[in-house]
Design brief:
36% of the residues lie in helices and 34% in strands. It has four helices and six strands; from the N terminus they run H-H-E-E-H-E-E-H-E-E.
Amino acid sequence: MSTTDDTTEQAQQLIQFIRNEMPLAHAMDLQLVHSDDDMLSLLAPLGPNVNDKGCAFGGSLVSLMTLSGWALVEMALRRYGHDCDVFVAESSVRYLSPLWQDFRSEARLAATASWTTFFNTLTTRGRARIEIACVVPGDDGKPAATLSARFVAKRRD
């Protein structure tokens, strides 16, 4: 079982990998806020993610949520020793209010999803899918944007 410090270090390494391998993530100045077994949170400063109106660019919001969901799945796979490719299979985004400052995304397992089912399916079939719910909190505590996504993991054999 990994400790919180180990989880944070592994998450930092994953975020550095994302920044190094995905030019968009580097340009967004993606940063880790928090990672544990249940949630992964990423931050993006407003400066490199601003639109023509001076608020957060919608493409940056959806990218941050997608990357935080992907990273949550990737961290779970690494924690249990699975070497997989992870893809976003489908997603639905809602933009609810503009953001005028740095913003963060929180990715969690969707209420109807189960890591146990995901890993059992992955072990049996070599691929599995999982639903992830992401939110970008707004100024008033209500969501500024949400993303519901299905990620697929496929064993690298």
